[in-house]
Design a protein that fits this description.
CATH class: Alpha Beta
Order of helices and strands: HEEEHEHHEHEEH
Shape: globular
Distance between the termini: 75 Å
Oligomer: single chain
Helix content: 40-55%
Largest sheet: 5 strands, mixed
CATH architecture: 3-Layer(aba) Sandwich
Strand content: 15-25%
Number of helices: 6
Strand order of the largest sheet: 5-4-3-6-7
Radius of gyration: 20 Å
């Protein structure tokens, strides 16, 4: 037997295990400006069904992903500022990814999140216990300490995403993008 050949029993094991590994590890390409936001469905913290991008079909929306408690605080800064500057024009949805939280602690974590959040914000917040790695790939998430913020235009296409934690310079870019999307939508209504 040559040193490069694989004995039949080992080959059989490889043929069985390789597809299982591929199935277990979803692969997604990172989202870019102009891409359609992939479907994300779930129940809000108040128990209502929510489906993105369908709810963002008529006007721009902001979607914020949080993978850790620290990122949750960053997400809160983004959300509060958007609510202050665009109280009626731009809904802001928060996706809290808790797949990596041990099952034993999930209820306690969700209870803590609910207690810190007004009911109106709970209506736009989904807690997800699956596809965390898939969404990290889609968002090209490399740093769990900050929230990942996306601006969706009408029809659910991504127009902007942040590159770091909340700060005035990043927020100014988002605000400019929101104003541009509002202008585009209002021009289409006039026609």
């Amino acid at each position: 037997m040559s040193r490069y050949s694989i004995p039949f029993p080992r080959l059989g094991v490889l043929l069985i295990i390789t597809p299982l590994i591929c199935v277990a590890q979803p692969i997604a390409t990172p989202l870019h400006s102009g891409d359609m936001f992939p479907q994300f469905t779930g129940k809000t913290l108040t128990g209502k069904p929510l489906e993105l991008p369908a709810v963002a079909a008529v006007k721009p929306a902001v979607v914020i992903f949080s993978f850790t408690r620290r990122a949750g605080k960053d997400a809160q800064l983004w959300s509060e500022r958007i609510a202050k500057d665009f109280p009626r024009d731009v809904p802001c949805y928060t996706m809290i990814m808790l797949e990596s939280v041990p099952t034993l602690f999930r209820g306690m974590v969700v209870s803590g999140i609910r207690s810190d959040m007004p009911p109106a914000v709970q209506d736009r917040t989904i807690v997800s216990y699956r596809d965390e790695e898939l969404w990290k790939q889609r968002l090209a998430a490399t740093d769990d300490s900050h929230a990942y913020v996306l601006l969706l235009g009408s029809h659910g296409h991504m127009h902007w995403r942040n590159s770091g934690t909340f700060n005035d310079a990043e927020y100014t870019k988002l605000k400019s993008g929101i104003q541009e999307q509002i202008k585009v939508i209002s021009q289409h209504r006039v026609q």
